[in-house]
Amino acid sequence: MKKIIIFALALIMTGSIQAQDVITLPQPEVSKLSMSLGDALKQRRSARSYSEQEISLQTLSTILWAACGVSDPKTGKITAPSAINMQDIKVYVCSKDGVCLYNAKANTLTKVSGKDIREAIAGKMQPFAKTAPISLVLVSTKDSDRFPNDKYGAMDAGYVSQNIYLACTALGMKTVARAMMDYDTLKQELNLPETSYLELNHPIGY
Question: Is 0.85 topped by the overall pTM?
Fold first, then answer.
């Protein structure tokens, strides 16, 4: 028993086990999204400048749920439509503290990297994107045996993107959908398999 405890402590000290690698998000505050659909559609705009104000985990949880969170726990259905219910869009949350992957079913963030990759998300043409405190990167992870073609992943990303827009509008926040980014660097930093494709990114802020 003593050897097991010593081994576990050694793993923790070397970073092989880190409790902070998985963050449990607060339950989304769906009531904060009570703006009427008509008002949200009318007020929705793309923004290209952001303040330095941080985004709380509570607000982030609500945005992620709106993007593609579980809306019916009994069936596992999510808030966004999905071709043949593949639910292929994975959302990476990127900030100055690193990158986390959103797990909708568990309502958690799993740390992927400790690097700030917002400059790669912004790319060379639109440096404003790296000033947002958080960027959401939408990745389509395909099952090649089930997914008919690449168009379905792009469509699914579009549904999630619109949900992000409407949620940010309802919460009094700003965002913009972007396809510009340093694809090669991001694929490497996110350790994406060949069956994954970077679809869009959303800087988010006030």
Answer: yes
